[in-house]
């Protein structure tokens, strides 16, 4: 189905959708499909959700009489999708995407997931110790960079493949799936060989070749919002991954460039309004990274609480047992004991949120 949508989208055809009523019968659905095919020559892709069936329509929208379609028996509404990100649009597929990685569920109404670990894998001992301590604190997924994006060529660049090997073994030992950044196209296969989720860093959000190559790996992909990107751009570049046939995309808000004097206090400005906006716009899960978003250890607790209160599907937090000795991002890394406090309070906030739903 996806391939067909991609071909149409690429050829410039437009997308429309018909949402059937929750109680629509099989005959109603078949009648509508027959009608749009015969009357307007449209292609139809049927998405059967738990409660409602959505018909994705692709073809020449100028011929379509939407008012007429809306009046067909069993139809709730019919409309055109005009946004540049159609394949990830909630208006095209309304059901939340839930991504399952080694038993950890990300997205939908599931409790938030906690992704934790060091900025960079520094040694076998370091990642094993952090894996043990974050798993005891309640983390679900282990993070660690092996190919680090660094401003200076003189800074620690990461351990490369050896680091990934340590990360994979530590994840296995403590029962956590793993995530690590793919910095360049030339590393896609190596990273995919070791980790469960591939990460596209903020600097690479605009790198369409990298996103497409990484998406082809048939593994979940976490894409970080670039610090200068609008939400529309963020979703449009994520659409590129989905257009490769990979719907297991996790979005990550990690702060945007602060305006004026904001810079004096935080590394970036965490845009928490992006969370409810993105949840309205797309069915993909959205997690928040307060570590890079603020650059400050003392802000991780309040901003984590705020992110979960805003409805985030998870958090990505940098953790180290000795942040002051860390080879990168020491000022924003918290201790495993601080992580436990954050996870405990965030689970309570999630429960409060679910009582409102
Ligand atoms: C990271 O998560 O390791 C990282 C470098 O973050 P960002 O791409 O958001 O700067
Ligand atoms: Mn970092």
> Could you give the order of the helices and strands?
HEHEEHEEEEHEHEHEHEHEHEHHEH
CATH homologous superfamily descriptor of the largest domain: Aldolase class I
Summarize the amount of helix as a percent range: 25-40%
Bound molecules: phosphoenolpyruvate, manganese (II) ion
Task: List low-pLDDT spans.
Answer: 1-13
Radius of gyration: 22 Å
CATH topology of the largest domain: TIM Barrel
CATH hierarchy: architecture of the largest domain:
Alpha-Beta Barrel
Tally of discrete structural domains:
2
What is the CATH first-level class name of the largest domain? Alpha Beta
Strand percentage: 15-25%
Shape: elongated
Distance between the termini: 32 Å
Content-based structural category: alpha/beta
């Amino acid at each position: 189905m996806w391939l067909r949508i991609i071909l149409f989208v690429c050829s410039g055809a437009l997308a429309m959708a018909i949402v059937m009523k929750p109680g629509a019968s099989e005959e109603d659905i078949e009648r509508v499909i027959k009608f749009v095919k015969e009357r307007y020559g449209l292609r139809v892709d049927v998405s059967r959700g738990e409660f409602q069936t959505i018909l994705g329509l692709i073809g020449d929208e100028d011929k379509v009489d939407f008012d007429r379609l809306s009046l067909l028996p069993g139809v709730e509404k019919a409309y055109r999708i005009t946004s540049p990100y159609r394949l990830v649009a909630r208006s095209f597929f309304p059901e939340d995407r839930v991504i399952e990685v080694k038993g950890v569920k990300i997205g939908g109404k599931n409790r938030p997931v906690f992704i934790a670990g060091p900025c960079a894998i520094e040694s076998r001992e370091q990642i094993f110790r952090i894996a043990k301590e974050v798993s005891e604190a309640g983390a679900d997924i282990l993070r660690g960079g092996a190919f680090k994006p660094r401003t200076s060529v003189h800074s620690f660049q990461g351990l490369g493949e050896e680091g990934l090997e340590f990360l994979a073994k530590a994840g296995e030992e403590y029962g956590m799936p793993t995530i690590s950044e793919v910095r360049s196209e030339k590393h896609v296969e190596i990273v995919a060989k070791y980790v469960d989720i591939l990460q596209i860093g903020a600097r690479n959000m605009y790198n369409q070749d990298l996103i497409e190559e990484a998406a082809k790996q048939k593994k979940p992909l976490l894409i970080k919002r670039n610090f200068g990107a609008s939400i529309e751009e963020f979703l449009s570049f994520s659409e590129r991954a989905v257009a490769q046939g990979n719907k297991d995309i996790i979005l990550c808000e990690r702060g945007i460039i602060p305006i004026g004097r904001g810079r004096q206090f935080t590394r970036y400005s965490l845009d928490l309004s992006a969370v409810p906006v993105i949840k309205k716009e797309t069915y993909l899960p959205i997690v928040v990274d307060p570590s890079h978003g603020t650059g400050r250890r003392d802000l991780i607790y309040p901003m984590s609480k705020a992110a979960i209160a805003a409805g985030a599907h998870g958090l990505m937090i940098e953790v180290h047992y000795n942040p002051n000795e860390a080879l990168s991002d020491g000022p924003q890394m918290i201790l495993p004991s601080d992580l436990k406090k954050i996870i405990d309070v965030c689970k309570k906030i999630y429960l409060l949120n679910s009582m409102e739903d």
